[in-house]
Design brief:
mainly alpha; 434 Repressor (Amino-terminal Domain); 2 domains; 0% strand; elongated
Length: 117
């Protein structure tokens, strides 16, 4: 039975205030696992790879970051948050940027190739 007297058929249930009641959510009852300590290092390393690869690819083409954002159809602020390693890009965002450079998404995630200067 749900809190309003009806059967709980798997739909979200709402508290009388109309807000979602997290105590009724089965996910809320799951025990939380501690995050492994190296997870944050791995995320930062991937963010830096994406940043470095976007910079190298843009530099090779003589493009500004504004041009990359415009061609990919992403906001300039999103691009600069990713380049500043302040945000992790979503896969669809990576796909848009990779398409502009005509590379596979994996190219943006791979370790950056030496520039050969």
């Amino acid at each position: 039975m749900g809190p309003r007297g009806g059967a709980n058929d798997g739909r979200r249930e709402y508290a009388p205030s109309g807000r979602f009641c997290h105590t009724l959510c089965p996910i809320a009852a799951l025990p939380r696992k501690p995050i492994p300590p190296d997870t944050f290092d791995t995320v930062l390393r991937l963010r830096r790879r994406v940043r470095d690869n976007i910079r190298v690819l843009a530099e090779q083409r003589g493009w500004s970051m504004q041009m990359v954002a415009d061609l990919a159809g992403v906001s300039r602020s999103q691009l600069f948050n990713v380049l500043g390693c302040r945000a992790s890009p979503r896969l669809d965002w990576l796909a848009k940027v990779a398409a502009v450079f005509e590379v596979d998404v994996r190219r943006l995630l791979d370790p950056c190739e030496p520039r050969g200067d």
